[in-house]
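assembly run, all chains below
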Amino acid sequence: MTVPSHSRRIVYRETAADRAPQSVGLSHVSIELGHLYMEDLQVPESESRLAEYFRSVSYWVKSVESMGRWGTTSPRISTCFLIDDYFSRLDEPRVIIKKVVDAASKSGLAIDYIARESSCAEFGTAQLARQVFDRIVPEPLPGANGSRPPVKESGWLANGRRSFDPSLEPAMADQSWHSPEQSAANRHSIFMDVQIRDSLWSCSFLAAVWQLLRLGLLRPEEKQLTKPVPLRDEFPSDWSELPPVIKLTATKNPFCAYRSFSILPTRFMEVEMAARTVLHQVELDPLVLEDLNGRASLEGIQLPPGILDRIDYAFINDWSPTTGR
Amino acid sequence: MLAFGEVQTGLLQNSTALSRRATEKLIASAVDERVRTVERPIGRTSSSDQLEGVDCMLPTVSGRQTRGVGTVLARVAIVGGHAVQGSACVQVVPAGNPTRLPWSHYLNQPGQLEAIGKLDLKDVALGVVNGTSTPKSLELGAITTRMVDTVQRAQLIDHAPPLRASRTRLRWTAQLDQALDEPEGTFTLISEELRTIELRMPVTDLRSVEVLCEDLALHDWLLTTVLSVVEAALTHDHSRAERVSRLQPLLEHLLHLWMPAAHVPDQLLPVWAALDQRPGLTRQWQSVVARIRDQITVETLDRLQAVDVRRPSGRIPPPAG
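ok done. output:
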């Protein structure tokens, strides 16, 4: 007999072969109160505009709290705000953070966590953007049968087949023009082609990383990314010295959550659409998904199986008559 | 439920066996960091499952056009620092929708192909085994070739293998049905480099079937490679010394890799037991190994005798002590 007999008395294991994801604290909902470019915070009337914006946001926050769709009557809700320190660096953290927190507090809103956008790209040894990029499984075009390797090196990601113009490619002049085509079109196509990066990661791609981070789907070794550092004042003068996510209130509700709710200025709608195009094509760690489902079910909550269904949005125009913008 | 896949096995293009660390480094650089190693009873390091999206026709013998959309699971593994295996597999399920859904729907079910249109699982299973393919139908073979190539082309190995060995391919289908008592199957040698196995399995886990097929493919490749080297060495008019020099690399590099069912889940062990009974893979292996050892023993005796003849006394001195 060459095959070992069925002996079940001895269990043999090799721990090196088992992986376990880092554990994170989880709220029920992570509400994003807004995302602004640094320029938004530089204009002279920025404080009144921000206060105006947060006033509208505060109604949405109340609605989110009372929506009753989080699987519990007393949901743990945390609020967060993302500041762009990746594409531009202007005023120092103390000035900007105070401006945002004060404007929010005028409408009774507390910002529990503030994150730096650059940490979605890279922080310490954690290269979240790279990690997510490596997990992209580009959607196949109709006809993809495995014979050609998938390409994602162009820096662009689409939700279908790009249009083709033979006048731009004389070598292929025998082919005729064809229109772009969404792979999962509902009769008519809505074709999206998203730039992931040039020399920098794109805002849309970082927005996708930001959603994944808040949804507890990324478990970086750098714990500060998922377990924010409490910091109320004494901010460093340079953004790069600020922890990636800081905790500004005494809330017990963790930064990461089962579900996310993003309240954003309407002009970020395209960015979020692009982020969703990316999120549709990111392969998630099955162990992390299992961990989230297990933790939720211990609380009697069933999570939507698709992660895109765990994200809600509210878009608000941040034009207001007082600024005359 | 129908699952099918392909495993391609070959000799790692390196002059010596790679250590565990070197193997892990090789796979991490060729694929990604999520490398997994099992050490007992034989070292096996594999890459994480890579997903590849496909949207194409499923192979059928009838010519029926059934479109499959979803992801193929693919991985590469190195066993005992010498054998490379590229493996790809999928599971076919009927689609709930007549049209294609957003990609995240399919990514959520790794290794699953949803069949849009009329689906006849027997037809597809036969299509896989018979290799009926049109330019539009799924080509798992291309994916497994790429997986093996990513490792074989790496700069971290010296590309000077100790012996010549061809790649072999095992194409497999498995009907997964928990109502079955025992696994059943048909193993066929189609050509020198292609084998098929049609299985019926009392499990629903795609990965455990894949592990079994990888294990079968590895041992079939070992046997095929060793037999072909032995045949080439012994059927030609080589001197005995030359024969032995051709057989020696087998002894040094391949013979210890025979470890049937090393990582196969318990409930699938009967498949190995059956294959050992008929055609008797292990019997054939043992016989060819004995033959190699005999050749080497005879050559050693020859040499000792030659030394003996040259001695003045003509006698081998008794062992000391």
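The first helix of chain A runs from residue 46 to 66.

Residues 23-134+219-316 of chain A form one domain.

not gonna interpret more than that til we talk
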